[in-house]
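FORM 12-B: Structure-to-Sequence Request
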């Protein structure tokens, strides 16, 4: 566990299934164990803020807040939230709402993009995929993010998008073996499109990968991804 210098960052990862948070020191090292609670269903803005209001007081002291949200976010305002089961999120100032309950400065980004900041090297073209309730994506060139690129919603095959092919519900429907084959299929399709130097794969279902992936594909954990909460303040 970290015990270094600040500023200390509370990193929050809001997912379609679970909401996670931990506090990081200035070097991105966790000060505590990751805290996870089930995301409300349906996850309205009011329900989520109520949940965060119970989780945040259990965290160590922090100076600022970084939030990863599963949808399109611009300047702290949510535009879409396809995996939260409600359309009530459109035009919600999530950053402002969290500032009200913490009194701290807040930055909000797409969840996969925030996690990507935690694991990218900052060299060349790097692609991030998060396998969870849906499929999160992030694209970086020499450490700079191409924001709000939701190519998980692009058609892949058989009239289904990337997300529809490898989402959590589909894995439960077809089984882990076929799901792994589909992930490998998606990776093979993405490589000649983006010609990335490194593909980083994370999210709650990354630990269920058993298929052999190319040498330039790196699997990361949710805790590693949450370290992106610190780097988010550098951009």
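FORM 12-B RESPONSE
SEQUENCE OUT:
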């Amino acid at each position: 566990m970290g015990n270094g210098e600040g500023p200390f960052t509370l990193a929050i990862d809001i997912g379609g299934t679970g909401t996670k948070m931990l506090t990081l020191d200035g070097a991105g090292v966790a000060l505590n164990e990751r805290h996870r609670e089930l995301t409300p269903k349906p996850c309205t803005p009011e329900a989520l803020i109520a949940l965060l209001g119970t989780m945040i007081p259990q965290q160590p002291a922090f100076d600022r807040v970084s939030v990863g949200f599963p949808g399109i976010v611009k300047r702290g305002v949510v535009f879409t939230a396809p995996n939260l089961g409600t359309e009530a999120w459109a035009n919600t100032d999530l950053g402002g709402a969290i500032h009200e309950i913490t009194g701290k400065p807040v930055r909000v980004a797409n969840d996969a993009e925030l996690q990507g900041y935690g694991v990218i090297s900052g060299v060349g073209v790097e692609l991030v995929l998060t396998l969870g309730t849906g499929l999160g994506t992030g694209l970086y060139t020499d450490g700079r993010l191409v924001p709000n690129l939701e190519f998980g919603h692009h058609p892949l095959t058989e009239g289904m998008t990337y997300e529809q092919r490898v989402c959590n519900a589909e894995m439960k429907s077809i089984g882990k073996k076929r799901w792994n084959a589909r992930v490998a299929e998606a990776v093979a399709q993405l490589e000649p499109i983006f010609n990335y130097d490194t593909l980083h794969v994370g999210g709650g279902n990354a630990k269920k990968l058993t298929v052999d992936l190319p040498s330039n594909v790196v699997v990361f954990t949710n805790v590693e991804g949450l370290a992106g909460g610190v780097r988010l303040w550098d951009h």
